[in-house]
Amino acid sequence: MPRRFALFAALALIPLSVMAQEQTITHAQPELPREKLTIITHDGKRHEFTVEMAKTPDQQTIGLMFRTHVADDGGMLFDWGVPRESQMWMRNTLVPLDMVFIDADGSVRGIAENTVPRSLAVIASHGPVRATLELAAGVTEKDDIRVGDRVVGAIFPAKP
């Protein structure tokens, strides 16, 4: 019985340590290095973006928190390195976003439009993705970006 209690107590402390770490984030991170990204929609239109690249765990944890504006041709690409389930939230994110979940081959797997600022609800990719792209809310609708469209950029080379 004491071992079970010790295990339960240790597991119970994990969320508290994560929450304590999250509470230390009080401001936006400096702008990250940017790369060009193109989304080619189902009708052949090309939409050009210059996005910040969140590659490290620390950069990905902070993301667009505390930013007050995301340009219509900007955003942030979360490069997971390898395909994995992407689970995002809007904690400390002050502006609504569109989240585009991108497969390893550069195809759009899913889209979450107009996510709610400061929400703790999990926004999931519902399957492994190579990256998650955060854009200003309304951009996916305005540009008619849909599941199956193609993303081309540094980690998503153009098909020959």
Structural class: alpha+beta
The number of helices is: 3
How many β-strands, per DSSP? 7
Helix content: 10-25%
Main beta-sheet annotation: 7 strands, mixed
**CATH fold label:** Jelly Rolls
Shape: globular
Tell me the name of the CATH homologous superfamily. Answer: Protein of unknown function DUF192
Total domains = 1
What is this structure's SSE topology?
Layout: H1 2-23, E1 34-40, E2 46-54, H2 57-62, E3 76-88, E4 97-102, E5 108-112, E6 123-136, H3 139-142, E7 150-153
Parallel strand pairs: 2-3
Antiparallel strand pairs: 1-2, 1-7, 3-6, 4-5, 4-6
Describe this structure as you would to a colleague.
The chain is of the alpha+beta class and 160 residues long. Strands 5-4-6-3-2-1-7 form a seven-stranded mixed β-sheet. Strand 2, helix 2 and strand 3 form a beta-alpha-beta unit. It has a single domain (27-153), classed as Jelly Rolls (Sandwich), CATH 2.60.120.1140. The protein is 20% helix and 36% strand.
In short, what is this structure?
With about 160 residues, the protein is α+β, with helices and mostly antiparallel strands. The protein has three helices and seven strands, in the order H-E-E-H-E-E-E-E-H-E.
Structural key phrases:
160 residues; alpha+beta; 7-stranded mixed sheet; single chain; 36% strand
